[in-house]
Amino acid sequence: MNSRAPGRAKRRATGPAGDHAVRLDSVGRRYGTGDHAVRLDSVGRQYGTGDRAVTALAEVSLAFPKGTFTAVMGPSGSGKSTLLQCAAGLDRPTSGSVVVGGTELTGLSERRLTLLRRERIGFVFQSFNLLPSLTAEQNVALPLRLAGRRPSRARVREALAQVGLGDRARHRPTELSGGQQQRVALARALITRPEVLFGDEPTGALDSQTGREVLTLLRGMVDREGQTVVMVTHDPVAASYADHVAFLVDGRVDGALSGAGADRIAAHLTRLETTPC
Questions:
Q1: Residue 263, class by beta-carbon neighbours within 10 Å (0-12 exposed, 13-18 middle, 19+ buried)?
Q2: What does DSSP assign to residue 203?
Q3: pTM for the whole thing?
Q4: 65 pLDDT exceeds 70?
Q5: What's the sign of the alpha-carbon dihedral 122, 181, 261, 72?
């Protein structure tokens, strides 16, 4: 059975572990430095101090090329969400460097970091986080309004049409299915035309069919519009929609796959989960 995500061209990469295995640094270095949407260099994140200190990330170096779809996977507690939060400027690393589109994040003030997240980064989470009293178009327009900008109705409708909800603009969240609500959340993330879109388990609360529809939307945005997507997921099927899959174990990078189907991704993840530390 072919477990490759539908509609995605096969992208081959070679490496010591087989046709689909690649060194993670080679995924980033295949492109010039200016082609990186996000780059992490020796990023560490520690919580607490002394004997109670917990290391969530340890010397992680990753590059996410522009116009590509990357999935981040690993066993529970591997540091996936911490990696996303540091890469997106939601959390500050304890050490190392994070660069988004040529801007070093680690030295930015809280105000400048907030502005960067608001204007250049999009977020989609497992929970839809829509305001129930607002219509779909009002929820989509919210990031621009919070930034003190008055979005045009045409731009909001364009964002909704982009996710297939052009006819649901005046519906409130309670009048939409779970998949439709996640599409509204996706349109809200895209309204600022972000340089990179981060997703933290964006299909985790959806049934398999609806999840595939959302993943197909993400895949299409990369292929047709050159959007950069970085997605944390536990689901090999979801990861198979990505160009590259990076694996974390105990806060450290532990390999990558390029152009792999769900079966191969699942097998790789199982090996990581069953290999003794």
A1: middle
A2: T
A3: 0.85
A4: yes
A5: positive
